[in-house]
Write a structure and sequence with these properties.
The chain is an all-alpha fold and 85 residues long. The protein contains five helices and no strands. The radius of gyration is 15 Å and the shape is elongated. The two termini are 12 Å apart. 31% of the residues are buried.
């Protein structure tokens, strides 16, 4: 088995791109699911808000899911590195 990635690197990947942290810890299905729901909820929020809302307001649903995926990926990386040590 290869050595697990540093949890801080996984955290950085999760911050940069939704689902990338999960893919880095070899949970690609979970990462792709997060990426899918980020896009889905961004589209839903975008279509249900008015044009006078800010970018954050128009994509709040997707950003919320993205924000949930960041600590999840980091936690899974910490668990993986602790069990491999």
């Amino acid at each position: 088995m290869p050595k697990p990635l540093n949890p801080y690197l996984v955290l950085a990947l999760a911050i940069v791109l939704p689902g990338a942290g999960h893919v880095a810890v070899r949970q690609a299905t979970r990462g792709l699911a997060f990426a899918f729901f980020v896009v889905l909820f961004s589209m839903i929020t975008y279509s249900t808000t008015t044009s006078d809302q800010s970018f954050i307001g128009r994509h709040a649903g997707g950003l919320f899911v993205w924000a949930l995926s960041i600590p999840d990926a980091y936690r899974r990386a910490r668990i993986r590195s602790a069990t491999r040590s």
